Amino acid sequence: MGAAALGSVERFAPAVVTARWEHVFSELVAARDSGRRDIAKAERQAMHDLVSGADGGVPAASPAPASTVRGGGAQALEARLLKSVRGLVRDGGQLCRPLEWESPWDIVQANLALAADALESAGVPYFVVRDSLVRHTVAVHATYREAVLKALAGAYADQAVYVSVLNENQNAVATVLAGMLENYLDTPGSGVRVYQSAVSRSRTLRLGAVYGCTISFWDEDPEDPAFFLSPTRTSVGTRLPQQSMVRSPMPLAGRTYPSITPFTRPLHGDVNFPVDAVYTWVDGSDVHWLDRKNTVLAGLGLQTEDAATSAARFRDRDELRYSLRSIDMYAPWIRNIYLVTDQQVPSWLDTSHPRVRVVDHREIFGRRGALPTYNSHAIESQLHHIEGLAEHFLYFNDDVFVGRTLQPGMFFHSNGQAKHFMSPTAVPMAPASYADEFNISAAKNNRALIEATFGQVLAHSFLHAPHPLRRSVLEEMEGYYQEAMATTAANQLRSHSDLSVASSLHHYYGFHTLRSVPGSISCGFVNVGLSDHKSRLNRILTARPHDVFCLNDFHDGDVPEEEQDAILTAFLPSYFPIASQFETGSERNQRRRAGYLPGWPL
User: Cα separation of 451 and 429, whole Å?
Assistant: First the structure.
């Protein structure tokens, strides 16, 4: 046997092969236990997220991040925490605390406090950074990186607090319970994200990493040490001169955090003026309201309505309750909420709440128009007469909901300009006629006024979204289109002579007078009366893809009324499981009364 053949035999001898397999196997086990394999897998997932733009846009009910480490004792630690920490549950691949009363904005604040408490206890200096995200970021000098990880590990070793190690693209490469964090002291990263996952009792709302607090490691610019570099984009860029880093306090949710003057000064783009919300609402099952309406119908020589017909036309599925929940959960920067009604008050509404006021039609109509009115166009034409209403406000129908955390810049520019959201639905290019549906004839009447005033022909309507309005524009229109506005206000029932003032005419008039400009919003629309729209509800609930959405119910659909009731009875509390501070007796309501519910800014 030649030397080559002899060498081959020796290489593949059973003892040699066995030893090699044992070595490979021991390396694989070590990699699993150390978490390195999870990190490598997470790196691949992070690259996919970077390309697909997933970071920061994860649905509120999403599962745990792909970077969550399962090995290295994670399961044993989870089991111990489940036994020792009251109320913890396993959901979506992570340990979650119960979400009883907190909104997403409250969770954001709680996670900021988690990070700040650990840093302050360890004596690690930090400051709060401003950026465009809902979640908070704090900056720490890169030399404290190991101290930060040890501080978090020590502070939360016995709590279900998660920490994600972030790469230079701000994607998580490893997500572990804080008690395991010291195993990752050598893992490179530009920062960490700290959070507790929380889930509602219904398991339909889970708030996790998207609302965590990022601890970002800043360092001197190697090309010019007079500047500091941030690994993330801030509101003032990624490169700050050291001389600008003067300490300045930043109050958030009743606590004052350290920051620096570039982040505590009013910045271009900040919406610092108050924004209110206005709803119009009717309870069609109210017999007193129906008696008043039938008096009007009889006086006009029209057929009156019985209670069953009225209840069907104005069926109340508690949409208003859940629309207010959507504001409390996702738009807490709204200052006051005005509910415009005809001598009606929802039984569940806390009318003593300082941010809520019920406004009767008689207050806003004064001597204008004709009351009682059952014409939504007429009511909308008088909203600017609400006493105390802010110059900038959002007009909501009660079937419109805020779908995720939004900031006021979605609706207004910092210079005061309102935004409007154009629909692809065209207004038919024909004069108004009695054959039109009332909303179409109103749009055509708007078109005639805009063309006569500005020489341009409007072609489209607007999305079923909150309408950003300026009170001064409405006041000016009332004077400029005095006759047409007065006619609309005087129509007690919908008429082909109506204008649609708040939902259309304001936007076109404001555009031509430089006070309203096109905006962009993700707006979902579901007609619960159509069976082929049911799948949209499932997607909205599971993916939460929209900034706002509308749940409309056309009366000529193919879904029976009782089934529509059942659908919304299941959907609405699943999407909005936290009772708002505006609901009498809710936990948020009681906390507000006791002074334990912080206000804006959050």
Answer: 13
Separation CA 413–CA 407 (nearest Å): 11
The model's pLDDT over 94-128, given as tens digits with 9 standing for 90+, comes to 999 999 999 999 999 999 999 999 999 999 999 99
Token couple for 316:
């109340």
Q: Which residues contact 468 (CB under 8 A, 6 or more apart)?
A: 392, 393, 394, 411, 412, 418, 419, 420, 516, 519
Measure the CA–CA gap between 558 and 241, rounded to whole angstroms.
64
Cβ contacts of 484-490, under 8 Å, gap ≥ 24: 484/445, 484/449, 485/381, 486/368, 486/369, 488/375, 488/377, 488/378, 488/381, 489/365, 489/368, 489/369, 489/370, 489/378, 489/381, 489/382, 490/369, 490/370, 490/378
Determine the 3-state secondary structure of 568 from DSSP: helix
Torsion of CA 418, 131, 134, 349, to 10 degrees: -50
Tell me the domains of the chain and their CATH numbers.
38-264 (no CATH), 275-594 (3.90.550)
Q: Which residues contact 380 (CB under 8 A, 6 or more apart)?
A: 280, 395, 500, 501, 502, 503
Length of the chain equals: 602
Number of Cβ within 10 Å of residue 554's Cβ equals: 10
The beta strands (E) that lie in 6-136 are given as 89-91, 94-99, 127-129
- Which phi-psi region, left, alpha or beta, contains residue 506 (left: φ > 0; alpha: ψ -120 to 50)? alpha
- From the number of C-beta atoms within 10 Å of its C-beta (0-12, 13-18, 19+), residue 600 rates as middle
Residue 581 one-letter amino acid: Q
- pTM of this prediction? 0.88
Reported as a single tens digit per residue, the pLDDT across 410-438 is 999 999 999 999 999 999 999 999 999 99
